[in-house]
Amino acid sequence: MRVGSYLLPTILAIALHAVVVGLLAQSWFDHKDSDRKVPRHVQAQIVDLTTHKAQKVKAAEAKARNKAEQIRKAEAEKNRKENQRKQEVAKKKAAEKKRQQEVARKKAAAEKKRKAEVAKKKAAEKKRQQEVARKKAAAEKKRKAEVARKKAAEKKRQQEIARKKAADAKAKAAKEAAAQASANAALQQALAEEEAAIAAEEQRAAAASYEAYIVDMITRNWRRSPSARNGMVVEVTIHLLPSGRVNDRYVSKSSGDARFDNDALRAIDRVQVFEKLRNMDSVVFDRYFRKRILRFRPEDLRN
Question: Mean pLDDT lowest for which of 51-60, 185-194, 246-255, 281-290?
Fold first, then answer.
């Protein structure tokens, strides 16, 4: 609450007290009994200064509030009108801007259409010129192709004449060479067959010798079991390396006696390496001893 709202009630209260004090002072200093008059009947009313003061304060506050409300309303109305005016101005500016944009758009569209039309005409003219140039080039190409075709045909005719002459000469020479070659081939084949037969025989002899060596080495290391009986045959497949070392061994056909079969495998394991195979020709080794099947019978064993 503002201080000014108490000013008027305070002044009124002080004035009222001054009046009351003045009236009382007159009666205090008046000592003439002879002049005492009979007082008139005065209707008095007791005034509660505190209540009166509060009423004055409330009235002043109400008046101040009304004035402030009026000021506020006036300010609100002023602001409303100002905002309305600004909105009108902004609306007019937006409309003007939109109009200018529409003018610019139409102008740009017209310019774009004009340029497109110019470009279209230029493209049509360029296409016409290209078509003329294409037809001219095609005609020239066709003429050159015809000339080239005639030259190629003449060249081909000349080449065909030369080819036939060369073919006749070649056929004659080939016939003579074929006859000579046939005679030479027959002679070479006969010699080759003879040499192959000799080589095969030598290889078989060498293979038989080395097989005997392998069997001998195995039987030397064989420990014949008591269960072995004449007539049994065990077939063992052995894989060897060029160094003579055993790479693998297994029973490919059993004798029917597992102990006799295992004796054969143990005998091979005791040998491990067949030293003499290192001296064998590689062709003979690959053909006969890379993988070899051996057969053993109890009656072939020494012990």
Answer: 185-194
Is residue 55 within 8 Å of residue 13, measured between CB atoms? no
Residue 102: what pLDDT? 95
Per-residue pLDDT, averaged over 40-62, amounts to: 76
Q: What is the mean pLDDT of residues 189-217?
A: 74
Domain made up of 221-300: CATH architecture: 2-Layer Sandwich (3.30)
pLDDT of residue 94: 94
- What are the pLDDT digits (tens) for 84-105? 999 999 999 999 999 999 999 9
Instruction: Report the b/e string of 105-140 with b at 16+ CB within 10 A.
Output: eeeeeeeeeeeeeeeeeeeeeeeeeeeeeeeeeeee
- Answer yes or no: pTM beyond 0.70: no
